[in-house]
Amino acid sequence: MQILLGLFILFAFLFLGDLTSAAIGNYIPGNVIGMIFLFIALCCKIIKPKWIRETTEFLTRNMVIFFVPLFMSLMDEWDILKLDFWSWIFILFVTTIIVMLSAGGSAELLSKIKRRKTNE
């Protein structure tokens, strides 16, 4: 029953985000706006984390199923992709390095900030 409640809450915020996105002209994707609304609701304690924890843990553990349609559509477009194969590999390599460096740098910065706050 807890999973159903969690799904209802997540889909409600997704729907709210889609409505907001449509209202502002679809400049920002609805799922991003919905996640921001969910974050605000969690921070303001409108939504209790225990209400969505089981659902989010399940979705995170089984995240690979969300990538299957992506890879299947990539295989459908293989004729187009193979024309610039090495360009795609280079782009994937460079963007992966950028993401790794930015994530590591952010984590390190947040760790330093946390240490400073605990030492004060």
Descriptive account of the structure:
- With 120 residues, this protein is mainly alpha-helical.
- The protein has two domains: 1-66, no CATH class; 68-120.
- It is built from six helices and no strands.
- It has helices at 2-23, 30-43, 49-61, 68-76, 78-81, 85-119.
- α1 (2-23) packs across α2 (30-43) and α1 (2-23) crosses α3.
- The termini are far apart.
- The mean pLDDT is 90.
Name the features.
mainly alpha, 120 residues
Name the poorly predicted regions.
none
How large is the count of helical segments?
6
What coarse outline follows from CA principal-axis ratios? extended
Number of strands: 0
Provide the helix percentage. Answer: over 70%
Q: Helix/strand-derived class?
A: mainly alpha
Query: Beta fraction of the residues?
Result: under 5%
Question: Order of helices and strands, N to C?
Answer: HHHHHH
